Amino acid sequence: MKHLLTALLSLITISSFSQIKIENFNSDKLNEKRELVISLPASYEKNPTKKYPLLILLDGDYLLNPFLGTLAYGAYWDDLPEVIIVAISQNKKNERVSDCGSINETTAMPEGKSVAFYDFIALELVPYLQHDYRTTDFRIIAGHDTTAAFLNYFLYNDKPLFNAYISLSPELPLGMEEQIPEILSTLKQPIFYYLSTADGDVKNMQERIQQLDHKTKEIKNPDLNYKFESFKDASHFSLVLHSIPSALYQIFAAAQPISTIEYDTKIVTLKEGYVDYLKKKYDIIENSFGIKSPVRINDIKAIEAAILQNKDFNELDALAIIADKNYPKSMLGDYELATMFEQKGDNPRAVRYYMSGFNKEEIADLTKDMMFAKAEELKKTFAKKPKIKGKVGQEAEPKQETPATDIPVTEEKKQ
């Protein structure tokens, strides 16, 4: 009963971050209906123009909840983007083996039902999801043991269907540990590849996975983003819970907010170009994942801090443009300009922008009271003080002496 209550509570928590729906997809390739569990992000209905990366889960029956939990947690802290998850059910009549385990012993390539399952994903499922749901062109596929090995076959095309591969303790067909590194070394498009094993895996399986890792680490291909992990004191099944957060944070590292480490090692150390760094960061997010999102306020503040620390105050002008573009109704852009003029000693113009921001919406830690107080404080530095004569303590103006003349003094005047 206790375990059931825990499970129900976790589902309630997860459901607050997403919308779950079940579809029975009629596949011509499989000649059957296949159940799909589709998780839409919490913002899907609220933001009808936003598109989301797509995550396809093999072994969806038991991989959905751990992936969903990690993504919900990451999205809550704005560490991971929202993602559309499609979990393929494979729990009837040992479907996962017939779907992904029909491999020819001679060619080590799929045959029979596994070919049909491959075509179902590539030719039916992905096109359907792209048509009926708002997905970006960034696609991830994940699987465990048998299905983790099968997902590698999507790399065998000249233009791989998926951009990221999460292979959890794969049961590799003969020769795959040699073939995958060769393919990864010749990639012509950016690919993320995550591979894991554990002490609790079958020893023969561990050895072949480690061979795959050893050869992949030797690859010098700038288009490959690769990560391998071997977990100690973990079983073949518990490694899944260790791997999922690590894999997702690897894939979406570029989309994360500016961290303390990123600030200290990559931003504040720049001699110039702080705003350009911010622009490039969000260009990478859009170009890599298809995610169009406002520049985070905290990221703007991080760049502001670097500018102030390095006293490159003119860059606050460009930062104000970004602030106005992303938060046009807020006081953020005016605050950046006011800060720039204040730091440059132009207090009258600083006051003008503090007061301009006072009339706009508050944002983050910027308030109307703060903007007004800053303006009033600076006004004191340039207000003219009236001269009031006759007051105690005021110095009298010096007397003007009668100017001397050049007229000579006569003897008569002397008398």
From TrEMBL:
<keyword id="KW-0808">Transferase</keyword>
<dbReference type="Pfam" id="PF00756">
    <property type="entry name" value="Esterase"/>
</dbReference>
<dbReference type="GO" id="GO:0016301">
    <property type="term" value="F:kinase activity"/>
</dbReference>
<dbReference type="InterPro" id="IPR050583">
    <property type="entry name" value="Mycobacterial_A85_antigen"/>
</dbReference>
<dbReference type="InterPro" id="IPR000801">
    <property type="entry name" value="Esterase-like"/>
</dbReference>
<feature type="region of interest" description="Disordered">
    <location>
        <begin position="385"/>
        <end position="415"/>
    </location>
</feature>
<dbReference type="InterPro" id="IPR029058">
    <property type="entry name" value="AB_hydrolase_fold"/>
</dbReference>
<dbReference type="InterPro" id="IPR011990">
    <property type="entry name" value="TPR-like_helical_dom_sf"/>
</dbReference>
<keyword id="KW-0418">Kinase</keyword>
<protein>
    <submittedName>
        <fullName>Histidine kinase</fullName>
    </submittedName>
</protein>
